[in-house]
Design brief:
single chain; 393 residues; mainly beta; eight-stranded antiparallel sheet; six-stranded antiparallel sheet; 1 helix; iron; Homogentisate 1,2-dioxygenase; HgmA_C; RmlC-like_jellyroll
């Protein structure tokens, strides 16, 4: 979300001398996107951000996808994933394509290293738990329902409070921002937007660290996780200003758009990136035409795959999904409400569902690791009499 912010100490004009008390210069870093044509921020460090004392390959970043099988709807019961870890190493990847990777994580411990994604922006949705994200731009505290947007190249560390922070992670090779149709030419959100700038939370405080020692920053880039060791703390920033920084939007602040008859899914859109969108399904009033059918109509994803991550509540068009379920409805075949759900919706006044939807405009593939969580009968759950055994796929 692009609007100007400033934290800490900065000089009056950019690219001019800015000295410490001892007379030495702070190190200016311009951090921008799209080759100096996109949004950017300028940070002032105590040490050069290039002062790496050791560079190594930490691990290959290699996602193994399943072989192509029959085109079918999928249901992954990720609520059964009991693996614990931190917010990055603990990610269990479920789906992906050339534009995005979708993972879940049970962050039960703090990261003992620092991390940055050098390929694109990241979005962390907080299903459960509280804690903080410490970054080079400052600290943000999170709570359930928060979307945490972390720009490319941002060094960060996730520190959960007591208990487990259950996260949905979306890794991209591009940017994440608000829908263009909700912004004027200057980037300001318009009156018909389902949220406004008041709903966004940036870094709350800037803590400048002057510690020296060994600090590991792991960088995801070019199919590998790289390990860069610094002799100084990576959060040595004394001040910054600009339009590029991490920020948070809580799903509870999304104001749903409703109508007399059923509204199409784009009304739920919250974010967009290159070849994907992210939507928020929140508690809302149903359609109020006297003959309206609140449940969605059957529809064909002619050019996009649809993913739903179920957070809580009774999702009005589905049976058999639970908290943490991920469904994938691929392009090429239609999908829609489960049997009985259309009739059940008639006359209802509201829904209390909460879910995150990700639509991609290139086909998604299921990660082999995710198959252990699959409900392989989901494709046949629309049949009046589902087969006794799962047909061969």
């Amino acid at each position: 979300m692009a609007f100007y912010r400033q934290m800490g100490d900065i000089p009056k004009k950019r690219h001019t001398m800015f000295r410490k008390a001892d007379g030495t210069l702070y190190r200016e870093q311009v951090m921008g996107t799209k080759g100096f044509s996109g949004i950017q921020s300028i940070l002032y460090h105590h040490h050069p951000p290039t002062a790496v004392s050791k560079a190594e390959v930490h691990a290959k970043f290699d996602i193994e996808f399943e072989e192509q099988g029959a085109l079918r709807h999928r249901h992954l019961l990720t609520g059964g994933c009991a693996d614990m870890g931190d917010a990055v190493d603990g990610r269990r990847y479920m789906l992906g394509n050339e534009d995005v990777l979708i993972a879940v994580a049970n962050a039960a411990q703090s990261m003992d290293y620092y991390y940055r994604n050098g390929d694109g922006d990241e979005l962390l949705f907080v299903h459960e738990g509280t804690g903080r994200v410490e970054t080079m731009f400052g600290t943000l505290h999170y709570r359930p329902g928060d979307y945490i947007v972390i720009p490319i190249g941002t060094i960060y560390q996730v520190i959960p409070d007591e208990g487990v922070s259950k996260l949905l992670a979306v890794e991209t090779n591009s940017w994440i921002t608000t829908p263009k149709r909700y912004r004027n030419p200057h980037g300001q959100l318009l009156e018909h937007s389902p949220f406004c700038e008041r709903d966004f939370r940036g870094p709350e405080q800037l803590d400048t660290h002057l510690e020296c020692g060994e600090f590991e920053v792991r960088t995801k880039s070019r199919g590998f996780i790289h390990s860069h060791t610094f002799d100084h703390h990576p959060f040595d920033v004394v001040g910054w200003d600009g339009y590029l920084y991490p920020w948070i939007f809580n799903i509870g602040d999304f104001e749903p758009i409703t109508g007399r008859i059923h509204m199409p899914p784009p009304i739920h859109q919250t974010f967009e990136g290159n070849n994907f969108v992210i939507c928020s399904f929140v508690p809302r009033l149903y359609d109020y035409h006297p003959e309206g059918i609140p449940a969605p109509y059957f529809h064909s994803n002619v050019d996009s795959d649809e993913v739903l991550y179920y957070v809580k509540g009774n999702f009005m068009s589905r049976k058999g999904v639970t908290e943490g379920s991920i469904t994938l409805h691929p392009s090429g075949i239609p999908h829609g409400p489960h049997p009985g759900k259309i009739e059940d919706s008639i006359g209802k006044k509201e829904t209390m569902e909460l879910a995150v939807m990700i639509d991609t405009f290139r086909p998604l593939r299921v990660v082999k690791q995710a198959l252990q969580y699959e409900d392989d009968r989901y494709m046949y759950s629309w049949c009046a009499a589902p087969p006794e055994t799962t047909p061969t796929v």
